[in-house]
User: What shape does this take?
Amino acid sequence: MVKITAALALCSLLILSACGNEGQKDQKAVPPAQTSEVHTNNSGSTTTNGTSGVQPGGSGSENSPETNNDQTNQGSASKPDSNDQQSGTKAVKVQYRMNKAYDIVPSVEGVSKKVVLLTFDDGPKKAEMINGLIDTLDKHHAKAIFFVNGYRVKQHPELLKLIADRGQTIGNHSWDHIILKNKPEAEVRRQIEDTQQIVKATVGKAPVFFRPPNGAGGDTGKKIAKENGLLYMTWSNGSLDWTMSSKSSGNADKVISNVLDQLHSGSNILMHELPWTVEALDTLLTKLESKGYTFVDPESIDTQIK
Assistant: This one.
């Protein structure tokens, strides 16, 4: 009888121990709560599809230093999706808006008017230039919009991922870098929406800024940009870096002087992914800071279409 009682007690202890271990296993299997912050102003949109065009200088128009005839078949694009935002990004307070002159101005009281927006068009081209630009931006704690062409993204998706991974904002610069003004609506839609689609497919987030090549999107470009939740913009300060060539001398100095000659509060500065712009950027940003200017984070700009 004593042996039977002892055996029963031992079995009870083993059962209780097993239950305790099972409870610990269940506890470990539950993942910790996940939290994320997103910029509530970013709305995503669509994505698929190349040639670069030419951009004449001056405020509101642009001129690309390169051409490319590598056309590809263009696919269809989906409609804007309000759930396209990437989770895990740090929330940025919306404090600025763009006016009719494409300047960036405060939308709330108490923020500085003495700001500039930095933008770079016609990429992504080369990792060396992208890293060079972003290294300098990081040095000055600055953010910028990198306006990209869809055909370039298709050729080098890893370069788009590089821009995104390094914390910079990506904008839509059409698929082929053609002049959109007066093009048929179906073509303009493909140029904008296919770029939306491929950017989203590549980095998980569609652009919220659109800049037409040459600053010439026309009424149709503005309409389709709005339908895709994109803030349409050209610029208000052109560096003229696209008018220079590798055969010219003193290009970096010219970039700097061109920007400073046009400098004003809210300047929306147009630059490109070019070697002399990479060379000029550190000195340019240093000079801007010495004049009391700060750099607008694109995420702080209101992109809601009024």
